[in-house]
Description:
Helix content is 73%, strand content 0%. The protein has helices at residues 10-24, 29-41, 45-58, 63-75, 79-91, 97-109, 113-122, 132-142, 146-159, 164-175, 180-193, 198-210, 214-227, 232-244, 248-261, 266-278, 282-295, 300-313, 316-329, 334-343, 350-363, 377-382. Helix 8 (132-142) packs antiparallel against helix 9 and helix 16 packs antiparallel against helix 17 (282-295). The chain starts with 9 loop residues before the first helix and ends in a 5-residue tail after the last helix.
Amino acid sequence: MNPSPNLEDPRWQRLEKVRGYMQVDPANRHLRDEEIDLLLDLRELDAARIKLDLALQAEPGEPSLLFRLATLAMIKREFADAEKLLTGLIAAGVREPGVAYNLAYCQFVQRRFADTRQTLTSYPEARQVPAAIPLEGRCLHHMGELPAAQELLHAHLAQYPEDVDALGLAALVCVDQNQFKEARELATAALRRDPNRIEALIAIGTVDLNEENFEAAAAAYQQVLSINARDGRSWLGMGIIMLLSQRLPDATECLRRATEAMPEHSGTWVTLGWCLVMQNHLEEAEAAYRHAVEASRAFSEAHGGLAVVAALKGDKEVAKRSMEIARRLDPGSMSAAYADALLSGNAKDAQGLSKLATDLLQSKGMLDPQNPSGRRLIQQLTLLGKR
């Protein structure tokens, strides 16, 4: 049930005027369309649908009405229905920027990133919508084409340096390429214009996490979660902070929330697996690593994690097979090295396991803030946007 109208809202005031004019001129299409647009803007969706149905009875197939019907479906998050209506309009020869852009957006929300790019490139009128370039950049980002996304966004920002949407996304793309200095600059510029820009907050939180400034990183992630409680990257970031602070039950909860939001992200499952191994919850850890393998069979640390669990269970043959796969994918697999040390008897109790893990991480330079190789522990655990 919609709340009572706020009669001080100019939109409601305008709606009352339009309805008054329509009593004098009920056949005026412009007034009819304005009434529907106001109802959509005010989220009076049932009233808007009634008006649209009546209008379409009078003008079946009218493109402007079908576009508004698609808009109604989008507001209700019925993106497949909206896509059908918008595809029909394009097939009928409608070449309006909003039609093509909204079609691309519907495809994006359904995670059909290649289709989204195809729509944006096939119908150039879509690019007249200011949000089109950031939308294409998000597609490239999700598809793992980070240099292409960066090139597209930098070219756009050279022409539109105040585009806060592009600034925030560009910061995130830089983070996912370990370009932390530029990421901070872009994120800071975005947050000056919009303090609640989610992608900029995630970017600056990740930069702070990488620099081991946990308090600042947590503040950024918590701000994101106050805006969107299902943001997977922020739950992952919080989980890593808790993990590195040895708050393992809290880390487990955060990481589980992250996997709920990003079930396709192998790095999140691997991080959860490490957290569970550290608590000796081996069955749950194995399940997490298997999810990681399902999400990305080419990710060495997922197979290495299974090797660790098998080694801890004493199943040497399974451990060796998983180690072989992990090292075939990445000869420097941290998890495979950990499993190897377990099999060789270098760690036989909880204290030994902890010392072994620390020794392995330090030997790889992962705890050294000045290490230029990009393989420190935090970077290894986050794996944001890469798996």
